[in-house]
């Protein structure tokens, strides 16, 4: 056995154990009896301990030194393993333990503070988390930018500078679009009514099938927060059902189907290797977003969905498919990121990006965060935050130390915009297929041009290769302006 | 940290990882998408590799040498850990690998041979498995009896000699009872009809509740073969539904509820320790059997079930509760162990015990097994085996190397007989409660007197302490003779 073989055999078991951890998380959110929470914590803790020990095993360093790659796939394997090993070993064990301890407690304190609408209650904890993340970033950054070092964990190669410049270009156009849409004379009516859970779930399954989700290698269940989980031949999705709001179930399902199709679409040869899943958070989000928005909220597809829903639920009280398209794409004021429409969403992200960049950079103190949030929110959204639970306390991310994660959501939207442009140019008859509820031509194109590569190329290269051009914010903004101008008669 | 503390902390993680493996098995039988089988094999393999390495880690030997127990609980911890460590380390790694390899292939070959009804197809493989199990037993036995060494894995302290003597005492009484029952003039009619799956499952949940199953720490799902899984606060059960035979679902559910209540009833202090589950296969089976048979098939309980079923399904076409009791307890000729009634069941086990004892002892050749099986079957069951799939090819056990496992089923029945005698003497009003569908007084007594101890005492001592007398076959045989004499008017 060569060093390369040894390393890959070792890595394969680690990947398999990582999948096991994923199964446990899926079970916890879908199936686990409520009384098992504490015991499950110990079970996951034991498994994470094994995984951490494996990922920092000094033998990896030896193998990496001796391993001789034979092709670009081997090189990509080594690149991923080296990257993970170096990140893990740069962080002192004591700091890793302290971070795990503090963020685990912080999540509970954050939840209580949000429930109590009390920022003060959360600040000392958030200060601790920020201090520890800055310390962690300093170990990772090798003298470089602290925030870049954190972003790199979720999006290899992305930097605060390039993201910041892109967001600066996006912001004025989005703010202007938002203001125009909200001030438009024509405002689509929202969908109202009661939509029984079982019928919603039947249609949700049909939606997932329509996007090419492979049921032999996955399943759909309910959870409080929708998610997708697992890689390769076991890629499961969840959704939720609100009987007054079927779009919640349907578009969560389509979103998670996008994530899952990406995982299912990776070349089977990469199963249980470092290339065997989506390459980054941003590219992952590009798949979920293009499925959800550019495809799932397109006029031909909502036309088909309108017919499905009237068949299932009877008259929807909206008049026609055109009004239904408006209801699906309705832009509404709101404080909460997770409830935001396509026009507002990226403004939420840019706000968080700007603030966390400053927090990690040391130019914004935690105690000044609320004011900074509220000021920026008023600028971009045209309304004042009415309570902390609708402001800086709304997201769990910071309490658990996820700094550098938020921008990948907006990057996913930007990539989705680029991929949609390329897809439309490459696949004729897309709209006709969507009008039949069939998005599989899109999945096939995405699989062939992006999904199958898994982690073979770097994130941005993965998207560039699929698009045939350098990705930037242009196609997304053009798409948003065209779509919402038309719907709102701007 | 003392050696005792180090050892227990290490063991706790191992126990937690063992629970994780259990969750994966549960998932595989209930939830896993069918396309994930191969990937799952790798995931389980990686986890089993970790578990095996942990269980044979040389540090355990050092800790065991230095650990100083402070009380009987510590002593029991050390006893279990030492026992497991010694068993694992006595077997050469190459033999363990070869056994795993051969039995994994053998299971498939057995399944094909059974489907083809072809003994010859299976014999070379079974010969290999027997030879490897004899080799394994020789490593474990330290010059003692080979078969004892294998039994000891499932039932600490049980020996072929004591089991053989007990089975020799049971056999004539069971053979006589079987003949008398089958020759009786009065034969109860079987239940016939169509019983919708959903209604069966609703009643199955009610049954589990009636026996005190804690739903906050468990759940009920469907699987091909019913099983219970997990320990402590996450103890799940499965059942199956055959729409023409609701007793299949109901009594499988009660049986698995017995296993699960045992796990749920273990003292919470023992969670994720070597004492945190049922102490042995035999004692485990005593819980499932007393729930299923002595309680669940008792006249007061079937009276309640009759009312429930007529409420749910309408007229059952049997006439009255008495006829229903007869249908539940109907004794029927049959070749298959898993379909056997209370009168036939132990005869199936004794046959397998006698044959596998000789196979492992070297006094019966694999090529002579079929004839030996068929001869013995004709003697005890009064009919000739009509085809190998109904004879020596019916069970999976031998193909996967489970020699020494069968006798624990009969031992469980014997223990259930003893516990039932003690329970009836100790708990007044048992029949009145059962007549209301309430078996929780039995669960409470069993929890207090047996279940809560987990692995604290040795298996036989566990039962003896609960009963207040030395367990033997007497109470079971008395119970069977009385019950079936009455039902069949002997």
Automatic annotation (TrEMBL), chains A, B:
Q: Which Gene3D superfamilies match?
A: 1.10.1370.30
Kindly indicate whether the keyword Hydrolase belongs to this entry.
Answer: yes
Q: Which reaction does it catalyse?
A: Release of a C-terminal amino acid with broad specificity, except for -Pro
Q: Which GO terms describe its molecular function?
A: metal ion binding; metallocarboxypeptidase activity
Q: How is the cofactor bound?
A: Binds 1 zinc ion per subunit.
The cofactors required by this protein are: Zn(2+)
Q: Broadest EC class?
A: hydrolase
**Which residues does UniProt mark as catalytic?**
256 (proton donor/acceptor)
Instruction: Name the EC number(s).
Output: 3.4.17.19
Keywords from the UniProt entry? Carboxypeptidase, Hydrolase, Metal-binding, Metalloprotease, Protease, Zinc
Name its GO BP terms in alphabetical order. proteolysis
| Pfam families, per the entry | Peptidase_M32
Q: Does the keyword Protease apply?
A: yes
Question: Please, which domain of life does this record's source organism belong to?
Answer: Bacteria
Entry binding sites for Zn(2+): 255, 259, 285
* Similarity annotation: Belongs to the peptidase M32 family.
- Relate the protein's function as given in its record: Broad specificity carboxypetidase that releases amino acids sequentially from the C-terminus, including neutral, aromatic, polar and basic residues.
What is this protein called in UniProt?
Metal-dependent carboxypeptidase
Query: Source species, please?
Result: Allgaiera indica
């Amino acid at each position: 056995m060569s060093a390369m073989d040894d390393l890959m055999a070792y890595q394969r078991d680690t990947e398999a154990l990582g999948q096991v951890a994923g199964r446990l998380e899926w079970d916890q959110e879908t199936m686990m009896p409520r009384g098992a929470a504490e015991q499950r914590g110990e079970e996951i803790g034991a498994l994470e301990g094994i995984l951490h020990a494996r990922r920092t095993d000094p033998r990896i360093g030896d193998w990496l030194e001796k391993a001789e790659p034979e092709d670009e796939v081997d090189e990509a394997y080594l690149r991923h393993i080296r990257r993970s090993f170096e990140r893990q070993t740069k962080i002192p064990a004591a700091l890793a333990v302290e971070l795990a301890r503090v963020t685990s407690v912080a999540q509970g304190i954050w939840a209580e503070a949000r429930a109590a609408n009390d920022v003060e209650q959360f600040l000392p904890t958030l200060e601790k988390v920020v201090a520890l993340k800055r310390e962690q970033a300093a170990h990772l950054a090798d003298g470089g930018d602290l925030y870049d070092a954190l972003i790199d964990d979720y999006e290899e190669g992305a930097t605060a500078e390039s993201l910041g410049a892109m967001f600066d270009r996006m912001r004025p156009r989005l703010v202007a679009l938002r203001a125009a849409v909200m001030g438009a004379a024509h405002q689509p009516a929202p969908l109202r009514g009661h939509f029984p859970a079982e019928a919603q779930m039947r249609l949700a399954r049909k939606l997932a099938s329509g996007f090419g989700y492979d049921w032999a290698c996955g399943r759909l269940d309910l959870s409080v927060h929708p998610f997708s989980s697992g890689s390769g031949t076991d890629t499961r999705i969840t959704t939720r059902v609100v009987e007054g709001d079927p779009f919640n179930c349907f578009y969560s399902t389509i979103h998670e189907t996008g994530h899952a199709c990406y995982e299912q679409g990776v070349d089977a040869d990469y199963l249980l290797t470092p290339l065997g899943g989506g390459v980054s958070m941003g590219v992952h989000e590009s798949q979920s977003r293009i499925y959800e928005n550019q495809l799932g909220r397109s006029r031909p597809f909502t036309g088909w969905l309108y017919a499905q829903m009237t068949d299932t639920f009877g008259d929807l009280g909206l008049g026609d498919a055109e009004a239904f398209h408006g209801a699906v794409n309705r832009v509404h004021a709101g404080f909460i990121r997770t409830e935001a429409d396509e026009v507002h969403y990226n403004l939420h992200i840019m706000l968080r990006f700007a603030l966390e960049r400053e927090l990690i950079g040391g130019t914004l103190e935690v105690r000044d965060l609320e004011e900074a949030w509220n000021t920026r929110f008023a600028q971009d959204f045209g309304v004042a935050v009415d309570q902390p639970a609708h402001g800086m306390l709304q997201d769990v991310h910071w309490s658990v130390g996820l700094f550098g994660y938020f921008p990948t959501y907006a990057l996913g939207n930007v990539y989705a915009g680029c991929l949609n442009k390329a897809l439309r140019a490459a696949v004729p008859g897309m709209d006709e297929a969507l009008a039949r509820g069939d998005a599989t031509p899109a999945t096939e194109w995405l699989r062939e041009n992006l999904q199958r590569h898994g982690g073979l190329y770097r994130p941005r290269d993965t998207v560039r290769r699929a698009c045939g051009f350098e990705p930037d914010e242009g196609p997304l903004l053009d798409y948003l302006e065209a779509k919402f101008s038309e719907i709102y008669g701007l």
